[in-house]
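Class II aldolase/adducin family protein, pasting as requested.
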Amino acid sequence: MIDAARRQIVTAGIKMVEQKMIAGSWGNLSIKIDTSRCAITPSGRSYDSLNTEDIVVVDMQGNKIKGALIPSSETPLHLAIYNAIPAAQAIVHTHSVYASACAALHRSIPALIEDLVQIIGGSVDVAEYALPGTKVLAENALIALQNKKAALLANHGVVCWGISLETALMTAEIVEKAAHIYCICETMGGAKLLPESDIAIMHDFYKQHYSKRQIEKGDDVLE
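Structure tokens follow.
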């Protein structure tokens, strides 16, 4: 289980660099191995140079179990989400450009496109600012998540969770796409938002049907 989680994180890190979701060693990824352990990217290491042994394994209190490197400085954020949201099995934290622009503006990404509301259930809200790597940041992120799968971190970036690393990455990609569309719309008079009643219908359909089809097809497996 540990080796598989480490391999998935290395592969996903390369994918995030290729998609320009992160740069250098910024951002971080993790997978919940079981109820007592998670695998997470190390601090200060570029993603294109990572190997499986570099991925650190910690317990749910943040104590290192396996790995020679220091775990990500955002480990408290990841652990807070795992401990508060049992359904979360993987987390990605990105610094993608348009979502980070919204985070710098302290402006939520509104419910303006269908795939966003299907997976998120509404807007992507902004967590109140706190210093990176702190317990306060983790607490603020949980407030902003409010049963959603993504939140903006003020003046920082985005955090997303999923039932697998693949679904967490997909959520981050959709959030960035929606943020890009939102920024474009703001230069053209503003977006027309989806009706609240339709948001509820689409989100419920995704939870009850479409997400299960993705699992059946194996779309949530990242190798």
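Note for the archive: The beta strands are 28-34, 37-40, 56-59, 64-66, 90-94, 126-127, 150-153, 157-162.
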